[in-house]
Amino acid sequence: MEKLIISSCICGAEVTKENNPAVPYTVEEIVREAKSAYDAGAALIHLHVRWDDGTPTQDKGRFQECIDAIRKECPDVIIQPSTGGAVGMTDLERLQSTEVTPTPEMATLDCGTCNFGGDEIFVNTDTTIENFARIMLERGIKPELEVFDKGMIDLALRVADRKGLLVHPLHWDFVLGVQMSASIRDLVFMAGSIPQDSTWTATGIGKEAWNIAAATIAMGGHVRVGFEDNVYLEKGVLAKSNGEMVDKAVSIAKLLGRPIASPNEAREILSLPIR
Ligand code: KMH
Ligand code: ZN
Predict the structure, then answer these.
(1) Burial label, 146 (beta-carbon count in 10 A; 0-12, 13-18, 19+)
(2) Cis? peptide before 143, omega within 30° of 0
(3) pLDDT tens per residue, range 40-68
């Protein structure tokens, strides 16, 4: 089976130190978590950043500072800034993470609007999707198409791909457990709903995280683990670091006979230029 790309979503925008004291806020903490994931075998860091008090931000300068600092410790890792940011941010605010130097190899592109708990709505109109896709195409950034349900796959194809704004093969991330259920039935449905030459990653939010990770690894998909999606290593046991979560994904992969991709092997799988 193809080598496994492990992505680590080390920080997120919603999870806090109250959920797990190891959630990183400062630049030093973000670097510590990125390095722990990289050392354990993550080829890709999905990056949100925070101000020191934990407030999520898409500030270009803060992204630049964090990316530069991560790059020193993890020289070849793929750094994938979020353009999702946090609920309520404007599109212009969110896009700042793509304006860093050098231009990121990848960034997320969220493909629809969804409920985010309580009264929170994460807004991605058709215009937003099209604009973000166009900007990423112009800047040479490969989007990871974040889809929270099957309708978002259809939207990405209709709103961006049919207009020639996406370069194939596409890369998807199935985020299960926010809107669509984090069940293996739905994971299989999602994997069967994308263009055949696509690559895909999946993540389960909350308590289904490890079931989704194991099923994804067995199915030949790639896997995302980290504090953004889940703070537990197992039921009732908080993970001490993102690295511990990557370690667990590596162990599952080993049991299932799936070798781990290095960052450059991940670039090859994702059709990114080798560095
Ligand atoms: N924090 C969510 C509102 C992404 O990184 O692109 C959006 C998110 C998706 O996390
Ligand atoms: Zn994210």
Answers:
(1) buried
(2) no
(3) 999 999 999 999 999 999 999 999 999 99
